[in-house]
Write a structure and sequence with these properties.
Number of strands: 8
Strand content: 5-15%
Helix content: 40-55%
Low-confidence stretches: 1-51, 321-380
Strand order of the largest sheet: 3-8-4-5-6-7
Radius of gyration: 39 Å
Order of helices and strands: HHHHHHHHHHHEEHHEEEEEE
């Protein structure tokens, strides 16, 4: 059995999501593996690496067993059974690594969302501060005018002191306008101050949340790295033990290590393919999965910005009585007809604005017809084909936690970018990608382009996602020890738990 077989699909360090490597400082390898954030202590103990390897028969034991056929057969069965336990150890470390990595994936998604919220809140806060500054300036100018002249300019004072009868209406409307403008200035300043304060508070809360998300993501990465290191140690131990076991088998059967390795590999391959076949057939009788209630990775929203009270300017009423009082000088009453002389009324003549009939030139909207340009033609053929072709074109690309391409990916990053290449948007995290699909079918009905998920934690979260390409094979970004590649499902199922349903978009 080659190292490739031992490692294939076993160092299943689940894929991280959504953030570029620049989001966090390079993580250092964690010491011993401790319970990951999303894994209970009981579950972690169940799936934690097993500390001791089975005892391997010594050369003396093999020499004694060769003295009889029965003893030889018994020794061979014991050696092959020890080889088989390697799968159990690898599955255990795989589950621990997948759980830790899944937590890291979600921490990265939350981190990205928090950083976006912080940037948005900061922008709004800065805009509110600018508006508040302008409102304060206007308020200061108003205060200055009130102090100097009671808020009434010379031209306005002249109008208000006029004893012309017809000026009464203008005097009333001017006072109303002044009162309204002052009220609006005060209301605007008050609203700007309240909005600025609220947005400043939200920006601070968003920044704090982003800092906490960064700390959580760094801790999750350390957990994932520790689990990966522990798994790598088990792989190395298994390889070392395998070499010894094959040497003992070769001695027992009087053959070579190479021949024994080829024999064991062939037996294992047949057993794996038969087990996969049975699992696929059994999926037809598996009840359809029900999406668990909160499977998304969206963090709780920040508190909304309280809307500042809108202060409406008081509408002063025109003092109708005083108007007739001003017109009291009945003698000059005849002058009113001559009154048209005052240029003041000319302002109302300003209705010349109707000249803006040119704006009637809204004929421009006519160009709307050209707007309905024909939609861009979709890519030729099925978008599923385009999606799979993209993933296949990335074979050989390196694995990277949180990788979104174009040259490095994690499992869900490869899936998301493949769909994006076909013009379809899917979530960033593998579990969300599975549950967001409109159709889910048993493995017995899986088709080219379906999504397969592995290692269900019992709560609707999965450790790995891959794209099915037919012939019981997937294209995937599995872990940092392997590049993007095509892998037979039978090479993965001994060490990873294949979910009985596939997702189809």
């Amino acid at each position: 059995m080659s190292m490739r077989f031992l490692v294939r699909g076993t160092a299943t360090l689940a894929c991280a999501a959504l953030a570029s490597s620049g989001l966090l400082l390079p993580a250092t390898a964690g010491p011993a593996v401790s319970a990951a954030p999303g894994l209970s202590s009981t579950a972690f103990q169940k799936f934690a690496p097993q500390p001791h390897l089975p005892t391997v028969p010594s050369e003396e034991d093999i020499a004694k067993a060769k003295k009889s056929e029965a003893a030889t057969a018994a020794a061979a069965a014991e050696l092959e059974a020890i080889l088989a336990t390697a799968n159990d150890r690898l599955r255990a470390t795989s589950m621990a690594a997948l759980s830790a990595s899944g937590s890291y994936t979600e921490a990265l998604v939350v981190l990205e969302q928090r950083q976006e919220e912080a940037a948005t809140a900061k922008g709004k806060s800065e805009a509110a501060r600018s508006a508040h500054s302008k409102a304060k300036t206007q308020l200061g100018q108003l205060a200055g005018n009130l102090y100097k002249s009671g808020g009434v300019g010379l031209s306005v004072q002249t109008l208000l002191t006029s004893d012309e009868g017809d000026d009464a209406l203008y005097q009333a409307s001017t006072l109303m306008a002044l009162s309204s403008n002052r009220a609006n200035t005060f209301a605007s300043a008050e609203a700007a101050a309240a909005t600025s304060a609220a947005l400043d508070a939200q920006a601070l809360a968003a920044s704090t949340a982003a800092t906490e998300a960064t700390t959580a993501a760094e801790a999750s990465r350390a957990q994932a790295q520790g689990a990966a290191d522990a798994q790598a140690a088990v792989v190395a131990e298994n390889q070392s033990q395998r070499d010894i076991l094959l040497t003992r088998l070769a001695s027992l059967h009087n053959t070579t290590v190479e021949l024994e390795g080829a024999r064991v590999d062939e037996l294992t391959r047949k057993a794996e393919e038969e087990a996969l076949k049975e699992q696929i057939e059994a999926s037809a009788d598996t009840p359809a999965p029900v999406r668990p209630p909160a499977t998304g990775t969206k963090p709780p929203a920040l508190p909304p910005v309280p809307k500042p009270p809108v202060t409406q300017a008081p509408k002063p009423q025109a003092p109708n009585p005083p108007a007739p009082t001003t017109s009291a000088p009945r003698p000059p009453a005849p002058k009113p007809p001559v009154a048209p002389k005052p240029p003041a009324p000319k302002p109302p003549v300003a209705p010349k604005p109707p000249a803006p009939k040119p704006p009637v030139a809204p004929k421009p909207p006519a160009p709307k017809p050209p707007a309905p340009k024909p939609p861009v033609a979709p890519p030729t053929g099925s978008y599923t084909q385009v999606m799979v072709n993209y993933a296949l074109s990335k074979i050989g690309s390196r694995y990277q936690w949180g990788g979104n391409g174009p040259n490095a990916f994690d499992c869900s990053g490869l899936v998301q970018q493949a769909f994006a290449a076909a013009g379809k948007s899917v979530p960033r995290q593998g579990s969300d990608q599975f549950w967001a699909a409109p159709v889910r079918v048993p493995l017995s009905q899986m088709q080219y382009g379906d999504l397969l998920v592995f290692d269900d934690d019992g709560n609707g979260r999965f450790g790995h996602v891959a794209i099915y390409i037919g012939n019981n094979q997937v294209v995937q970004a599995l872990n940092y020890t392997q590049p993007v590649e095509i892998t037979p499902l039978s090479h993965m199922t001994p060490y990873m738990s294949l979910y009985p349903y596939a997702a189809r978009y």
